[in-house]
Amino acid sequence: MAEENAFLVEGPRVGIRPCAYEDAEEFTAGARQSKDLHHPWLFPPTDIRAFTAYAARLIEEADKAGFLVCTRDDGVIAGYISVNNIVEGAFRCAALGYGAFSHAVGRGLMTEGLGLVVGHAFTTMGLHRLEINVQPGNAPSIALARRLGFRKEGFSPDFLFINGAWRDHERWALTSEMPGATAAGTLSGGPASG
Asked: Cβ contacts of residue 139 below 8 Å, gap of 6+?
């Protein structure tokens, strides 16, 4: 865990903190170890150079934010969540991307972590709507969206270029007024203290 980055918000088992350049070694090791889990849905950076470019976009571009989901007891990175295409003004919307590392799968850590990010996005970031675009065959990602109260809004053929081809995606969304938004925000018990 990058020492200078304290948790923004904590839940019972995980905290979220901003992605930092210093996370390169741990993040890329987790991505390499999780390659079979991610394929064919995700392709997170597996080397330092690719991570540096990835982190730069999340850190330096105003329409993006990147968070790491870390276990509270030891600070180990369990997964990552990006808030992309942030639009302010009347829209106040963003798209979420996320992935777990293999050591964290099946433990509920990403459900808790994504709930913390949703709560943070609706409060601190001032967003009104969050979207998740997921390939129809990615059952674990769809299940995570459902657990957090996202509703399926539609289907977009040839939506994103992934792994060498245009892929169909289901569109899931949550607004700050929906019951799931409240439940996601209460997973944390509130902002981290201290």
From this structure: none
Global pTM?
0.89
Q: Which residue has the tokens 């918000």?
A: 9
The rounded Cα 100 to chain-centroid distance in angstroms is 9
Angle between helices 48-60 and 24-33 (to 10 degrees): 120
Alpha-carbon distance of 127 to 115, in angstroms, equals 14
Break the chain down into helix, strand, coil percent, rounded to 5. Answer: 35, 30, 35
Q: Are 129 and 173 in contact (CB under 8 A)?
A: yes
Other CB atoms within a 10 A radius of the CB of residue 126 amount to 11
In angstroms, the CA 84 to CA 130 distance is 10
DSSP 190: S
Q: In whole angstroms, what is the distance from residue 75 CA to residue 6 CA? A: 10
8 by Cβ neighbours in 10 Å (0-12 / 13-18 / 19+) ranks as middle
Contact 83, 121 (CB under 8 A): yes
CB contact at 8 A, 131 and 93: yes
pLDDT, one tens digit per residue, over 67-109 is 999 999 999 999 999 999 999 999 999 999 999 999 999 999 9
The class (CATH top level) of 9-186 is: alpha beta
| Ramachandran quadrant class, 163 (left: phi over 0; alpha: psi -120 to 50; beta: rest) | left
